[in-house]
Amino acid sequence: MKEITKQKLRSLARRTASAFLLYGLLPLICLGLAAMILLLHSVTPAEATAALQAMGDRSVMAVAGEVFYEKLPEPNYYFLSDRLRLPYTAGLMASFGFTPEKTPEAEESPVPEKRPEILYDALPAGAVPVVQSDLSSSSYYINTTKYQVDIEKARSEAFPSGTSTENGPLVLVLHTHGTESYFEDRTNLSDFAEAPVVSYFVEGETVFRTTDPEKSVVSVGAAFCEALEAQGIPTLHCTVMHDKEDFNDAYVLAAETAKQYLKQYPSIQYVIDLHRDAVVRGDSYVKSHAEVEGESVAQVMLVVGTNQNGRHPNWQQNLTVACAFKDKMDALYPSLSRSLYLRTARFNQEFLPGCMLLEVGSAANTLDEARAAARLAAQSLAAMIKEKAPEYELVNS
Description:
Layout: H1 2-41, H2 45-54, H3 60-67, H4 75-78, H5 82-95, H6 104-108, H7 117-121, E1 127-133, E2 141-143, H8 151-156, E3 171-174, E4 197-202, H9 217-230, E5 235-237, H10 250-264, E6 270-277, E7 280-281, E8 284-288, E9 290-292, E10 295-297, E11 300-304, H11 315-332, E12 340-342, E13 355-362, H12 367-388
Parallel strand pairs: 1-8, 2-12, 3-5, 3-6, 6-13, 11-12
Antiparallel strand pairs: 1-4, 7-8, 9-10, 11-13
């Protein structure tokens, strides 16, 4: 009897100790670590909470990997430059007390070939040269995710979008980053005839964001919608600038907008999130350029999100639709479309197979060049819809 009592007492002691470790000591350790981090980095709880909220539903490690440590081939060619990523990157880094350091790889990277010095000598002090470049590539797509993608399989899959039993708009165009704007070229281009440098801007005097919808991607979206309507595709244009108040909340706000539109208009099958890119090569900004029927236009790029950061299991359907869109642009207007770009984030593309992110032009393009490119892209999208979903009763058809 005494032995049984001793066993029960030992068992109770073990359970008590385990409960203390689990429910008492462990939380205290976590609180202590949190306090140390806040003290070391001088980050208030409110700032840390705001930073976590800015990440949405992505994990801390996923954000750190994507923002700080992502190693990509030729990053200055295809992707947003560090200078123009500051509204997102610098704010997040500051929230956690991080200071970016140059990596050995960056320091050892080869210096880009200089353009003729006489051109640089002709530029005013503080000027940044703008070069014109055809950014279309023999590479159909760029993949920065962990997934192995069979692009031919994606292109041959059954088309997952384009039909609806509802009457109403078929396409929604919105802008997560509605304040993105373009270069207002006031230079004398004849000064740079027959030369790589076609223009320049002075840093500190040139801003690539504006709250004026007539000068931002909202105006480009309007041109895109007008071209779709002209082709008989019923379209809605949301002109809300979701990044106007807080850049970090833009995707969260845009997601709520998209859900509201889809609830109100169940006929919508395509959601185009229209942005503009920024391309930097060496010490110059790049003006994307295509010649279409004698007109100088900007180039466009489709960005496809994946499930790498979770909650987008059907992303391959979006890839199939994006491939069909790119194929139609390549057929109608060769060199208009850049390489399709696969990313780790979702970009609010989980709502429909027809959700796509479209980058129209770069920061060094003019608004007119971007609007011209948007019209051509819209004509391509209309042709794709009519080809892939002929059973849809289009207006004016």
